Amino acid sequence: MPYPLNTPLGRFGIETSEETRDRCVASIPASGLVNPLTGAPTLAPLAMLVDHAGGLINHARRAAQEWTVSSELAVEVAPGAAEIIASTPDRDVVAVSRPLGRKRAAALGVCELSVGAEVIATATVRSFYITVPTTLTAWPDKPSGSLPGTRLDELMAVEIGETGGNAALLVQHDDPVLNNSVGAVHGGVSSMGLELVGSAAINRDNAAQHYQTASLRVNFLRPFHGGGEGHYRATAIHTGRSSGVAEAQAVGRDGRTAIIARLTAYR
Hints:
Elements: H1 8-11, E1 15-19, E2 24-28, H2 44-59, E3 66-77, H3 81-87, E4 93-99, E5 106-115, E6 118-131, H4 152-156, E7 158-160, E8 168-172, H5 187-202, E9 212-220, E10 231-239, E11 243-251, E12 257-266
Antiparallel strand pairs: 1-2, 2-4, 3-6, 3-9, 4-5, 5-6, 7-8, 8-10, 9-12, 10-11, 11-12
């Protein structure tokens, strides 16, 4: 099932082919997109797919009058994933998600991501259940909308910001198409932003072989709103011969930290 272009899922080409309480299957085109900060191919779209597929399996288990809010996202990327995606531009990345354990006040979904027959990542999304909000934005249910461009920065409505130091920064502009049903930036979009700045921070002074993202761990603390002072910012806390680690955060337009993440990458 494709989604309208004026929804977060439709803008990034996500399609859902199966949705039950026991298994969800979704896909995203990931080839050809680059990190606007580095110009290098990026694995950021994997985070968008994980947020959707992992969150969907948790959402499928909700009871009447329950809604889900994702609190954690973690992606473990297999070595060579970027090369596999680049070498098969006609194939989307497919995620298969299943529930892990029992549903309590929270639930855990586990995903396996593949390109064709090759598994390129595993991931988890943890969500907790709340009462259905009194105000939810109704998403379009018919084909509509148009894309703002083909580059990842255009799709995400971000631009490079100045830090005056060693941090990597992307400004998140306010774009209602990128918001979820409660009016905050979609969790998959913000997770992509954190991957982009984290990878850029590690590779800022790297003149040799590029560090490739190996893991991304995200904690959603509060709703993240773009516009104003909304931005993603990351700083490398370690860059060694073989690995690098960066800490990233999404700061809302009110100046408060809304999401934090840690990215690890290897040469």
